[in-house]
Amino acid sequence: MPEPVSTSPAAPGVAGRTVLIAGATSASGHACAAALTAAGARVIAVGSNAERLAELAASVPGAITRVCDLGDFAAVTALAEEIRGQATVHGHGGIDGLIHLVGGWRGGGGLAGQSEEDWQALDAAFGTLRNTTRAFNDDLLASDAGRLAIVSSASVARPLAGGANYAAAKAAADAWTRAVAQGFAKATAPEPPTAAAVIFVVKSLAGLEQQLAERVIGLWGTTAAELNGVHIPLDPA
Ligand SMILES: NC(=O)c1ccc[n+]([C@@H]2O[C@H](COP(=O)([O-])OP(=O)(O)OC[C@H]3O[C@@H](n4cnc5c(N)ncnc54)[C@H](OP(=O)(O)O)[C@@H]3O)[C@@H](O)[C@H]2O)c1
């Protein structure tokens, strides 16, 4: 298991990087936006609700906000094109980091309670991961230090009947992210990858938002070869 907060000799560093936070208006999104901005990254915070994004912009000066329904692939590709047209410190034009935070727990009621409505909501959240990774894959590969991170759940390894929908949706996100990691590895093989996809794992995020933010910063303190395709558990205090 790599130590993402340590700085390895060839660590690329986060300052000047363009990092898009997909689903940025939760407490964890605020923490990541604040930490990345403080570390010198250019943060593009994306959500579907303008009011909540305005609150984020007010609490994290410097963060750029964009309203986008990440469930709409055409809207996501338009956002990717808009960002590619902007000047960046690292020069390749696209994003260097995609921190995907769209999730949302649904469940309860045993297996019988695993409703169609809940599944559709969870599937929609998974769809935002598919859309953003597909739209930004080339940018993450073009960066000399592309990073993708998602937050998965301990329920993937230990699913419960009352959370079967949720565990299945998070398992899909986990598999998708490892598939992205395989693509990152393949793109530079036999040389080591420059891009890395990682899966943070938590039981509950409450109280771990700051730790998540620090671990996100640490993704640029570790080489892609050490990170690509790994699960990184966040430790409850
Ligand atoms: N919370 C936990 O205890 C826990 C436990 C295990 C894993 N996780 C995972 O950790 C990640 C972060 O969780 P979280 O609770 O901080 O965030 P979250 O509330 O699940 O989602 C983050 C944000 O995504 C935005 N969003 C939803 N649909 C969107 C869409 N179509 N387009 C754009 N934005 C959209 C929402 O903001 P707007 O409404 O403003 O758009 C929401 O604030 C998720 O993947 C979650 O499954 C969380």
Automatic annotation (TrEMBL):
<dbReference type="Pfam" id="PF00106">
    <property type="entry name" value="adh_short"/>
</dbReference>
<comment type="similarity">
    <text>Belongs to the short-chain dehydrogenases/reductases (SDR) family.</text>
</comment>
<dbReference type="InterPro" id="IPR002347">
    <property type="entry name" value="SDR_fam"/>
</dbReference>
<keyword id="KW-0560">Oxidoreductase</keyword>
<dbReference type="InterPro" id="IPR020904">
    <property type="entry name" value="Sc_DH/Rdtase_CS"/>
</dbReference>
<protein>
    <submittedName>
        <fullName>Alcohol dehydrogenase</fullName>
    </submittedName>
</protein>
<dbReference type="InterPro" id="IPR051122">
    <property type="entry name" value="SDR_DHRS6-like"/>
</dbReference>
<dbReference type="InterPro" id="IPR057326">
    <property type="entry name" value="KR_dom"/>
</dbReference>
<feature type="domain" description="Ketoreductase">
    <location>
        <begin position="17"/>
        <end position="196"/>
    </location>
</feature>
<dbReference type="InterPro" id="IPR036291">
    <property type="entry name" value="NAD(P)-bd_dom_sf"/>
</dbReference>
